[in-house]
Design brief:
Layout lengths: L2 H4 L22 E8 L2 E16 L2 E12 L1 H7 L1 E10 L5 E10 L2 E10 L4 E3 L4 E3 L9 H6 L4 H7 L1 E8 L2 E17 L2 E11 L11 E7 L6 E8 L2 E11 L11
Antiparallel strand pairs: 1-2, 1-14, 2-3, 3-4, 4-5, 5-6, 6-7, 7-8, 9-10, 10-11, 11-12, 12-13, 13-14
Length: 251
């Protein structure tokens, strides 16, 4: 289950909302149902758990988890945990942890970022990173601080990502606004398409589309990824402690 890679959205070149007007707060929780075609295969959640001091810097502690539904545990058990600690001032990651078990395939990563020296330290190596680099989870929360007018004007943005001991540039293309039907009602969303370097959309044959609420929350509502065997979807199923009320059309 690669939900948190899928939602590694955005961009380093967009001016930020002021720190006092961040679109999220401690306690925010969002849960997603993950399906493959018509079949529910698992679920995932994101939570801002606390403000914690890391390297003398106050940071948002954010945890993302993904797991298969009980039935699919028999075939391909997934237990993924992602953690990022984001500097509350710069909104850049200070530490990133990844503990993945996907069908017995294990990944354990721990990155410590030094943005001043453009270095990230892993368990056994140091790597050069690009300015303002994000990890695969912090990028989403950084993205949520964008200014909408710059997105509409520029259409495409690029964000440097450090992932799996490599540097990447991710292009994010704004497509259009769409009205998304949800269990709470209709919500106006901005839709985006992430693309990797040289025109590749993540891996060959994959296409992705992301829906973000066009309100003060900039909340991730849906991710849809087409692969050669079908379509994977992650759809918001529950939320708590949003900083602002979710904007439902007609309310």
């Amino acid at each position: 289950m690669r939900l948190f890679i899928f939602i590694t959205l955005f961009f380093s070149s967009i001016p930020l909302i002021s720190q006092t007007n961040l679109p999220y707060k401690v306690g925010e929780y969002a849960a997603y149902k993950v399906s493959f075609g018509p079949i529910w295969v698992g679920y995932a959640d994101l939570e801002i758990t606390e403000i914690k001091t890391i390297n003398h810097k106050p940071s948002f502690h954010i945890i993302g988890k993904g797991k298969t539904a009980p039935f699919f545990d028999w075939f391909f058990k997934v237990r993924d945990v992602y953690e990022t600690f984001i500097d509350t001032t710069t909104l850049l990651p200070i530490e990133f942890k990844r503990d993945v078990n996907e069908g017995g395939h294990l990944i354990n990563q721990h990155y410590s970022f030094n943005h001043l020296d453009s270095i990230v330290r892993t368990q056994d190596s140091n790597f050069y990173i690009l300015p303002n680099s994000q990890d695969m989870l912090s990028a989403l929360f950084y993205a949520r601080t964008f200014k909408k007018d710059r997105i509409l004007n520029k259409k495409s943005f690029y964000v440097p990502i450090f992932m799996d001991d490599e540097n990447y540039y991710l292009e994010i293309k704004y497509l259009q606004n769409e009205i998304l039907e949800t269990k709470w009602g209709k919500i106006n969303c901005m839709t985006f398409q992430p693309k990797m370097q040289e025109g590749r959309v993540f891996e060959d044959g994959e296409e992705m589309k992301i829906w973000i609420s066009d309100d003060h929350n900039h909340l991730l509502l849906k991710v849809e990824t087409k692969i050669w065997t079908g379509t994977i979807k992650a759809v918001l199923d529950d939320y708590k402690e949003l900083k602002y009320p979710l904007s439902i059309i007609g309310e």
